[in-house]
Automatic annotation (TrEMBL):
Full protein name: FHA domain protein
InterPro entries: Cell_Proc_Reg/RNA_Proc, FHA_dom, GAF, GAF-like_dom_sf, SMAD_FHA_dom_sf
Species, as recorded: Lysobacter antibioticus
CDD domains the UniProt entry points to: FHA (cd00060)
Pfam families associated with the record: FHA, GAF
Superkingdom assignment: Bacteria
Coiled coil regions in record: none
Length: 296
C-alpha cells in the first residue's frame, strides 16, 4: 500500500514524502534522517514509519515530546487509514494512496511546473514596468493558489517602498488593523531576504498573536522578496482566506525561481524607464564643435 506523509513545520513550506510498500522513513532533527524537521520540539531521532504487509507501522523512538495519532499519544501503531499525526509540536497528515490518487498527484506536479514556466515566459513579453509588476503578482496568485495580494516595490525615486499593484486588496487600507498580519510577513521577508510561508496562520506564534489575523481570517500566506544582487527591489505578497492545498516545498521552489526571474526583468525595466525619463544628454560631436568654435 502506497501512502503520503505531509509535514507542516511552522514558518516553512509543507514537506511532502511519498511512501512505497517496504519503505522505511526515519523522522527527526538529525541531518541523516529521511525526513528532517528542524524544530526544537523534535528529537534527533523522533519516530519511524515502515511499510509492512498489514499497513504502515508508526513507531516512536523514545522521543522527548512524544508522537501522537489523532490526538492520542502512541508508542506504536499500524495505520491503514488516514491519520493526523503530531511529532512534538509539528503536525503531519498521513494518508494511504490508491493508484488514481498517485497518478493525480504526479499530474498535478507536472502541471504546476508547466504553469511556472509559462508564467516566466509571459513576463519576457511585457515591456512596461507596471505590466511586469501586475503580471508577476497574478502569476504568484496562480502558483500559490491564493486569492489576493499586492506588490511592494521601490521605484528608485528615493521615496521608499510603495504598493504598485494589488488584486482583491485596497492599497489604501493596508495600514488598517486587519492588514497588520500581512505587513508583519512583508517586514520579515524584507529583513531576512527570504520567502515567508504560513500554511496555517493561526498556528504561527509570531502571527497568531495579532488580532488582525483573526479579524481578516487569513488562512495561508506567502511573501517573496524580489532580489537584485544585494538590493531588495520589493516583495510579492499573496494570501487566501478559504482553506486550500498546502504550499509545499515544490510550490515554494517554483515560486522562488519565478520571483528570481521576475526580479531580473523588473530591475532591467526599472533602469530602462529611469534612463528614458532623464533629460537628453548633449552629443559628443556637438561638445567638440562648441569647443573648437570657441577656440577659433
Amino acid at each position: 500500500m502506497q501512502a503520503r506523509l505531509i509535514a507542516y513545520p511552522p514558518d516553512h513550506a509543507a514537506v511532502v514524502r511519498s511512501l512505497r510498500p517496504g519503505d522505511a522513513l526515519s523522522i527527526g532533527r538529525a541531518p541523516d534522517c529521511d525526513l528532517v524537521i528542524a524544530h526544537p520540539s523534535i528529537s534527533r531521532r523522533h519516530a519511524e514509519l515502515r511499510g509492512e504487509a498489514d499497513g504502515w507501522r508508526l513507531r516512536d523512538l523514545g522521543s522527548k515530546n512524544g508522537s501522537f495519532a489523532d490526538g492520542l499519544a502512541v508508542d506504536e501503531l499500524v495505520m491503514t487509514e488516514p491519520y493526523w499525526l503530531r511529532f512534538g509540536d509539528v503536525h503531519c497528515e498521513f494518508a494511504p494512496l490508491g493508484a488514481a490518487e498517485i497518478a493525480a498527484g504526479e499530474q498535478g506536479q507536472s502541471l504546476r511546473r508547466a504553469a511556472a514556466t509559462a508564467h516566466t515566459m509571459r513576463l519576457q513579453g511585457l515591456t512596461r514596468l507596471d505590466d511586469l509588476l501586475d503580471g508577476s503578482l497574478r502569476a504568484v496568485l496562480d502558483l500559490a493558489q491564493c486569492e489576493r495580494g499586492f506588490v511592494l516595490f521601490e521605484a528608485g525615486d528615493g521615496d521608499g517602498y510603495k504598493v504598485h499593484s494589488s488584486l482583491a486588496l485596497d492599497p489604501g487600507r493596508l495600514g488598517a488593523r486587519e492588514f497588520s498580519g500581512s505587513v508583519g510577513a512583508v517586514r520579515k521577508a524584507l529583513q531576512q531576504r527570504r520567502a515567508v510561508v504560513a500554511n496555517d496562520v493561526r498556528s504561527e506564534a509570531w502571527l497568531a498573536t495579532r488580532a488582525s489575523v483573526v479579524a481578516a481570517g487569513i488562512n495561508t500566506l506567502v511573501c517573496l522578496p524580489l532580489l537584485d544582487g544585494e538590493q531588495t527591489l520589493g516583495v510579492l505578497y499573496a494570501d487566501r482566506v478559504r482553506p486550500g492545498p498546502a504550499i509545499t516545498t515544490l510550490d515554494l521552489e517554483l515560486l522562488e525561481a519565478f520571483a528570481e526571474g521576475a526580479a531580473v526583468w523588473i530591475a532591467v525595466r526599472r533602469t530602462s524607464e529611469w534612463l528614458d525619463a532623464q533629460p537628453a544628454a548633449p552629443q559628443w560631436e556637438r561638445i567638440v564643435a562648441a569647443q573648437f568654435g570657441e577656440a577659433g
